[in-house]
Design goal:
Order of helices and strands: HHHH
Largest sheet: none
Radius of gyration: 13 Å
Distance between the termini: 30 Å
Shape: globular
Helix content: 40-55%
Number of helices: 4
Structural class: mainly alpha
Length: 80
């Protein structure tokens, strides 16, 4: 299960996580078309449907780690 603790929005802190954790978070953001990062206590909780979907994706990832992309691929895509 992914646990994100948001204390203060600092991008440099994000990149202190492991490559796998960063990729999971970036994929979640992209897959869910997240555009608004304002903090709202109600929006911090995932719905049951979101939890089920996320856990399913995590299980698929752990079952086949080759399906992911390298950090270089993601970084190049983000720089476009």
């Amino acid at each position: 299960m992914i646990h994100l603790a948001i204390e203060e929005p600092r991008v440099e802190q994000f990149f202190h996580h492991s490559k796998d954790e960063i990729i999971k978070v970036l994929r979640f953001i992209v897959d869910n078309d997240i555009k608004d990062f304002s903090i709202d206590s109600k929006s911090l909780e995932l719905t049951n449907e979101q939890k089920i979907k996320l856990n399913s994706r995590i299980e698929v990832f752990h079952g086949n780690r080759e399906m992911g992309r390298s950090w270089e691929e993601i970084k190049n895509e983000l720089q476009r």
